[in-house]
Amino acid sequence: MRPVGTVVILGLLAGAWAQGLQSIFKPNCDSPEAEEAALVAQEYINAQFSHGYKFALNQIEEIKIITKPDGGETYIVELELLQTKCHVLDPTPVANCTVRPLQETKVEADCDVALSKAGGVLSVVAYKCKSKPDSAEDVCLGCPQLVALTHTDALQVVDASLGIFNSKLNNDTAQFAMLEVGRLSSQVVTGGPQYFVEYAIVETNCTVDDHDACVPLLQPPARKGFCVAKGVLSAITVDCTLFPAVQSPVDPTANLTGSVAPPVVPKLRTIHGLKHHHKLSIVSDPATAGLLSESNESEEVPVVKRQAPMDTLLELPEVPAAPEIPAVAEMPVVPHLQICPGRIRHF
């Protein structure tokens, strides 16, 4: 009887162990599963920012799909994104945005993203990104070079070009003020440097004939736009695109009959540090960050170079350590030779 009892016990243990297995599948980086996850991640990351530029998918570097015993799926993907010329305020879909060319100093972002799939729908649960512009040595000889967003001469071109734009408006049209500077660069030409500037603008409560202190419109909602200008103070060209005003949603539970607080006048964001606009910022959920690989490269905002602990990426509030959970055995579903990284979409 002992051998029989031993076999039964071993069988029960084997069954319990099997229930704790989670399978791992590594599809090709250009597979439909990888493409779907990458595009969901791209849209989610771009939606997290209110300043700077949108980023577009360039390459899927790695992917794995973890299937849990309960049937739930977790996707872990590593992506390379490239900065586009679309500001985040621009409603143009990322698919229609032009990726910033090499001669304008490209900005690359590496991102690690964890997604869950439930009911056939993928959603991002955690991500970390690091971005960096090409070094000056990588930019073509004679091409414009990025300068700090506090560069005095370049900012004079910003102010002068905005004045030119406002001067072309109708008398009953509101003036626009600078909301934030996106990029500043300079290029050495005959006679000295010329500057290339990009900045966001916002509609104010002043008309073009007013000379009072102007503040952004609250009601109706202010229109915003984006300007690109180049030249020197004596010769500037500017092109501005205005975006439709976005109506803020009204809280249906708000008490509209009570006293109304005076409106708060938002401050214009004039100058930000270089990091904010030439690089992409990182946001992640500390509770799910453990799904992502530890990487020494993912230490800043837009791209996750593959290995950097989260505490080097963001100053996050301390999260109580979770109780230790016995390691769960992993078992590939089907042996598969994964083809990664995937195709390069731009350069």
TrEMBL record:
Keywords: Disulfide bond, Glycoprotein, Repeat, Secreted, Signal. Residues 1-18 form the signal peptide. It comes from the Eukaryota. Pfam families: Cystatin (PF00031). GO terms for molecular function: cysteine-type endopeptidase inhibitor activity. Its main location: secreted. Residues 24-132 form the Cystatin fetuin-A-type domain. It is found in: Secreted. CDD domains: CY (cd00042). Gene3D superfamilies: 3.10.450.10. GO terms for cellular component: blood microparticle; extracellular matrix. The keyword Ribonucleoprotein does not apply. This is Cystatin fetuin-A-type domain-containing protein. It comes from Anguilla anguilla.
